[in-house]
Amino acid sequence: MTPEFWLERWQQGETGWHLPEINRHLQEFWPQFNLPANAAVLVPLCGKTLDLLWLMSQGLRVIGVELSPLAIEEFLTENGLTAVMTDASPFRSYQVDELTLLCGDFFALTPAHLPEIHAVYDRGALVALPPALRESYAAQLKMLAPNAAQLLITFDYDQQQMAGPPFAVQRNEIAQIFAGKTIIELANFDVLNEAPNLRQRGVTALAEQVWKLE
Ligand SMILES: C[S@@+](CC[C@H](N)C(=O)[O-])C[C@H]1O[C@@H](n2cnc3c(N)ncnc32)[C@H](O)[C@@H]1O
């Protein structure tokens, strides 16, 4: 998936992954992370997810990273927010209270752009990337947030039935790309009935899995 692929999705309004509500797995499982007040949470490939607001409401500092300026503009407009914009080359930084949105390529992010990160929230990020990029994504996270706990939400289905995104990501791959982390499966749901669009694309069985990496 090239940057152009994603920029075009936003331009065409083809953002079927976006949820109109806070993610239920985030609300259920995040308390397990027991973060101190004011801890910093990184949300890679954040889109315009409302989960950013929920994380903020938990008293956390939140840093979202998103390629598309349109996604960030929609996030701000739809939530009635006004941001202070600054240059954080090669990113453009949008600041709203304790939320920082960095607009640019996640793979260009360096530790210099970030405070110490205590936790990572990944919904729709790892599964958005093709196999060849997933290892680099994990390496990038390891470099940016070496000691962070991670809540990771993935899909599993027969990859022969549909071309991603979202891609199927299984436990063995997670263990391989995040080697050194302890991987705990928190939940595994059959979500085929909640994903008519994927069913339409040929998927006959679909699991959504929630993982804690620490
Ligand atoms: C499947 S969407 C998920 C968005 C969000 N996590 C959610 O749950 O709604 C993937 C997002 O990643 C963004 N993206 C893709 N590649 C990126 C990159 N290299 N750096 C930053 N953002 C990227 C896309 O623009 C898109 O908004």
UniProtKB/TrEMBL annotation:
It comes from the Bacteria. Its EC number is 2.1.1.67. GO terms for molecular function: thiopurine S-methyltransferase activity. GO terms for biological process: methylation; response to metal ion. GO terms for cellular component: cytoplasm. It is an enzyme of class 2 (transferase). Keywords: Cytoplasm, Methyltransferase, S-adenosyl-L-methionine, Transferase. It is found in: Cytoplasm. It catalyses: S-adenosyl-L-methionine + a thiopurine = S-adenosyl-L-homocysteine + a thiopurine S-methylether. S-adenosyl-L-methionine binds at residues 10, 45, 66, 123. It holds the Pfam family TPMT. InterPro entries: SAM-dependent_MTases_sf, Thiopur_S-MeTfrase_Se/Te_detox, Thiopurine_S-MeTrfase, TPMT. Belongs to the class I-like SAM-binding methyltransferase superfamily. TPMT family. This is Thiopurine S-methyltransferase.
